[in-house]
Structure formats: C-alpha cells, structure tokens
From TrEMBL:
InterPro entries (UniProt xref): TBL, TBL_C, TBL_N
Species assigned in the record: Zingiber officinale
Domain Trichome birefringence-like C-terminal: 131-417
Listed transmembrane segments: 20-42
GO MF annotation list: xylan O-acetyltransferase activity
Presence of keyword Transmembrane helix: yes
GO cellular component, one term: Golgi membrane
Residue ranges constituting the Trichome birefringence-like N-terminal domain according to the UniProt record: 78-130
Membrane topology summary: Single-pass type II membrane protein
Record's subcellular location: Golgi apparatus membrane
PANTHER family linked: PROTEIN TRICHOME BIREFRINGENCE-LIKE 19 (PTHR32285:SF48), PROTEIN TRICHOME BIREFRINGENCE-LIKE 9-RELATED (PTHR32285)
Family (UniProt): Belongs to the PC-esterase family. TBL subfamily.
Stated name of the protein: Trichome birefringence-like N-terminal domain-containing protein
Alphabetically ordered keywords of this record: Golgi apparatus, Membrane, Signal-anchor, Transmembrane, Transmembrane helix
Length: 439
C-alpha cells in the first residue's frame, strides 16, 4: 500500500518554495471556501425560472431615508402620459411566476402553458416625454408609514397583485388581513411600515341579488348608497385607487332614496330602461362624493383608474369569443367600441365634476388614465391560459383580466409618476412666497 505521508524529497521541495507563494495559495483557498459557504445561491440554479426568461434586472439604489422623491424634467406635469405607444423592453419582465407568490391562478398565464412570452417585453412610451419603469425602492420611500387601498372589482385586485409582485423585488410582505377572505386582503411591508389593502366592491355602491331564484342574475343597485364594506373603513388610508367596469354590463334594477327609478336590461313592464351608463355614472358620483362630502377633512389622495377595455374577438365572452393577438396594436389599428367609449367618457365627466368639488374642500383627486394604453394590448390577457385545459369555469377565454407579469404592470408606472408629480407640487407649494391652496 502506498504511504500517505509525504516523502523527504517532497518536504524539501516545499521548504524551498517562497513564503509569498504559500500565502497566495492559502488566501485563494480561504476565499473560495468562504464564498461557497456564505453565498451558495450564487452557484445554484434552484431558483431559475425558465431558459427563455432572463433574470430580473438589478434594482436601482434606493433614495436616502426621509428624502423627498419628486418628479424631475422627465416627469413634467405638462406631459400627457395617457397618449403614446408601446415600445420593446428587453429588460422585462421584472418578476416571474416563480419569484412572486401574489399572482392569482387565473392570471398565471405561463403556468398554464401560454407558449409565447413576448407580451411581457413591452413598455409604454408617452408622446413627447419618457415614463420610467416602476422603481420599487422609490415607491416604498414615498409610502413609508402610509397605506394604500384598492376599491373595485377583480381587475382592481389584478392591479394590486401586480403592485405586490413589483414591491416584493425590494422587500418582503406579511399577511395582515383581518379576515381570511380573498375579497378583502391586507399586506404589510414591515421595512417601510406600509400597508396595501383590497376592498371587493364591483359596483362601488350597495348591491344585492334581486331574486335568488332568478336565473338572469338580476341585481338591485342602490345608487345613492356607497358600499359600506369600503366606505366605513376608507378614511384610515392615505391613498385610494377606485375603479370599476364590466360588472355594470349585467342586468340591474336602479334604486334611489330606496325607490325604484329604472333599470338596465331588466325587461320589466312599466320600468324605464335607463341603460347601464346611468348606473355607472351614479355609482361613480356616489363613490367620489364619499371623499368630497361625507369624509370631512379627508387628507389623503384619491386616484380614479379609468376603464379597462376587453378584447374578445369572434364572439362575446360567453359565445366563443377569444383574445388571440400576440403583439400590441399600433395606434391606428384599434378604436374603443361604443360601450367602452361611453363608459370611459362617463368616468371622465364624473371625475372632473368631483375634482372641481374637491378643489374647494382641499381634497386631492387624481386620474390614472390607462384606457388608451390598454386598448392597444389585446395580447396581454390570459385567454385560455388562466386555467387547466378543459376546466369548468364561467369565462373559459378570459379577455378581461391581465396576465402577470404583463401589460398591467405599467399601471404602476402611471401610479408612481402621478405620486412623484404630487411630491413636486407639494415641494413647490412649501417654498417661501409660493403658498397656494391645495388642488
């Protein structure tokens, strides 16, 4: 058996090696061992997503604690970020369906086999200015010690999940929900003492089934009564995003002062069909008045996020309609249909009226006008890739909600832009000689 002890000749050779060589080799071995011990994930592929998806790009450095984050030249308030076009973004996506636990199953398009991933690799470029991609570190600094609520339907919840995924790149969140109900969730980010919540209120006002045995699903809407599931708690939030859309297309009975005043598609004799637009208008009128009239001294900021278009082609949602686009439309390739246009204009009119009223009472109302941007993104819906093939679901081809990651992430670009412009307004107002009433 060969001896394991070094020979006298070997020992002599080792003694003749200069000391600096010994030191160099020892340092190299020590650093290699330490790297493997402290940073094993650097050499592991356990957290890779898929070969075709690059790792999310590194985060930019966060602002200094307590710094005022506000808009620079690229954030000029004179720039209309609602008008523009989609341009390629090779750096996207900024999270994946493996790195974000907040993605709802029905929006997890890659999990359910969507074969393409180009829908994730675009960003919105407004006409005449730039709109930087959402920076989670900046956002978190802006909302330190604050709270944000989403009030609306499942598309609003879709937006909240997008925001969560982007913020989870920078820190972690804990479930702070008072009840275990998917429709009413709260998440807290301990690193910044920031809370984000969702309030399920698809009609914004009080709603109840007209008749449990009615197969048409006729609904009673009390158009002058805000839904207390959100209105009783909303005063505690610093930021509120209100939105609503497709649920208003269903048959409804309209009540004001607890009296029946009309309906939408109820087909009832002696009941005036006031159309869905009347119900939509009154619901936003009532919801926005919660902040301008009902909550005295509300000091937060209310954002109205505009109508999110659908993209069913070849039929309605329940008659074989599908969304099969694989790239964004150009601006000259898409137009809002009559329903989407009327819903959008109704929102804008009610927002402008509430904004004027709020200005008198120092209530800040701001607009997230995402409609045109999303009109061009018929490629961004789950379609048939929001569930397993053959699943028994109410909407087999989902052309209403948005894949995550996907174009809905841009809504957070809009949100951060608007919040930074708000910071610029406040900073300007605080300068000596620039005192003005809040607007």
């Amino acid at each position: 058996m060969a001896s394991l002890m070094p020979s006298s000749t070997s020992m002599a050779l080792l003694h003749n090696v200069p000391k600096f060589v010994h030191l160099f080799v020892s340092a190299f071995v020590f650093l290699t061992v330490i790297r493997l011990y402290l940073f094993p994930l650097l050499t592991s592929s356990a957290f890779s997503w898929r070969p075709s998806a690059p790792a999310p790009p590194p985060l930019p450095p966060p602002p200094a604690p307590g710094a005022v984050v506000m808009a620079g030249k690229e954030y000029s308030s004179k720039c209309d970020i609602s008008k523009g076009k989609w341009v390629p973004n090779p750096n996207a996506p900024y999270y994946t369906n493996d790195t974000c636990w907040a993605i709802h199953e029905h929006h997890n398009c890659l999990k359910y086999g969507r074969p393409d991933d180009g829908f994730m690799r675009w960003r919105w470029r407004p006409d005449g200015c730039d709109l930087p991609v959402f920076n989670p570190a900046q956002f978190l600094e802006l909302v330190r010690h604050k709270s944000l609520a989403f009030v609306g339907d499942s598309v609003g919840r879709n937006h909240m999940q997008s925001l969560l995924c982007l913020l989870l790149r920078a820190t972690y969140a804990v479930d702070a929900s008072p009840v275990q109900d998917e429709n009413f969730r709260r998440y807290r980010f301990p690193s910044h003492n920031f809370t984000v919540a969702s309030f399920w209120s698809p009609f914004l006002v009080r709603a109840q089934e007209a008749d449990d045995d009615d197969p048409s699903g006729l609904l009673n809407l009390y158009l002058d009564e805000p839904d207390t599931s959100w209105s009783r708690e909303i005063a505690q939030f610093d930021y509120v995003i209100i939105s609503a859309g497709q649920p208003f297309l269903r048959p409804t009975m309209f009540y004001e002062n607890r009296r029946l005043v009309g309906c939408h598609y109820c087909r009832s004799p002696n009941v005036t069909d006031l159309t869905k637009y009347y119900g939509y208008r009154m619901a936003f009128h009532t919801a926005l008045r919660v902040f301008t009239d009902d909550l005295r001294g509300f000091g937060g900021t209310v954002f109205l996020r505009t109508y999110s278009p659908t993209h069913f082609e070849g039929g309605e949602w329940d008659r074989g309609g599908d969304c099969v686009r694989r790239r964004p439309f150009r601006r000259d390739e898409a137009r809002l249909d009559e329903v989407a246009f009327q819903m959008y204009m109704t929102q804008m009119e009610e927002f402008r009226a509430a904004e004027r009223e709020g200005r008198k009472k120092s209530v800040k109302l701001r607009l997230l006008d995402t409609t045109e941007a999303m009109l061009l993104r018929g490629d961004g819906h789950p379609g048939r890739y929001g569930h397993v093939a053959g699943a028994n679901v109410s909407m087999y081809n989902d052309c209403v909600h948005w894949c995550l990651p996907g174009p809905i992430d841009t809504w957070n670009d809009f949100l951060l832009h608007t919040m930074k412009n708000e910071g610029r307004r406040l900073a300007t107002r605080r300068r000596p000689g620039n005192e003005r009433k809040p607007s």
